[in-house]
Design goal:
Helices cover about 40% and strands about 20% of the residues. The chain has about 210 residues and is an alpha/beta fold.
Length: about 210
């Protein structure tokens, strides 16, 4: 029987929300070369997978973070999924911008978040952890407690693990980089000979160069 992380990895690979191209790397917006690209928003277009993710996120909140009384989604990727989880649990929902609006009320948090709320933050993807932890700080600065962060996927970079630990934030994810590689090998999406390339990239993604 597959673990949850392997099951989610399999679903993401099948709909190409996660793509692996060790021999033909992607270029991220940061300029990094990468053998993997992840766009979990694709899951929203597949009702079965969308609902599966929603139910699993809600289940984890109910089982492990029962004191949660508000849900916050990180813009833009986690707004839809966060709203669906909040709806399922009957909880208030807000979303957190990457930067304040440059007009009107100049809000960083959109929606009505009551001070002292115990907030679960929903994220679609955790990479270096920078933008995710900015969302954590926004909620804390508003006078609320962050009970944890739930994400669909993480690359598992050592730097992000260190930053979450330093910020004292509990992070749980439905799937991760290791599970994706395991499923990709099992389904012959990639060859076992490519595993070492994928592992080297994660060790130092900022300086990784594809082999020629």
């Amino acid at each position: 029987m597959k673990t949850l992380e392997r099951l989610v990895a399999d679903k993401l690979l099948k709909i190409k929300a996660v793509k692996l191209q060790p021999a033909n790397p992607f270029t991220w917006a940061s300029g990094w070369k990468s053998p993997i690209y992840c766009d979990n928003r694709k899951a929203l277009s597949y009702p079965d997978i969308r609902n599966f993710i929603k139910l699993e996120l809600a289940r984890i909140i109910l089982e492990k973070y029962e004191k949660t009384n508000a849900i916050a989604g990180v813009a833009t990727g986690a707004i839809a999924q966060g709203a669906m989880v909040a709806d399922l649990l009957g909880l208030p929902f807000v979303y957190i911008r990457s930067s304040p609006k440059d007009h009107g009320l100049e809000n960083l948090i959109e929606g009505e978040l009551k001070p002292d709320s115990k907030v679960m933050i929903i994220e679609d993807l955790v990479s270096t952890g920078g933008s995710s932890l900015k969302a954590v700080n926004a909620v804390r600065n508003f006078g609320c407690e962050v009970v944890g962060m739930l994400a669909i996927f993480t690359y598992g970079f050592p730097v992000s693990e260190q930053e979450f630990k330093k910020a004292r934030v509990s992070l749980m994810t439905l799937s991760n980089y290791d599970a994706v590689i395991e499923e990709a090998v099992r389904t012959h999406y990639i060859d076992e000979s490519e595993i070492s390339i994928l592992q080297k990239w994660r060790e130092d993604p900022a300086n990784w160069e594809p082999e020629v």
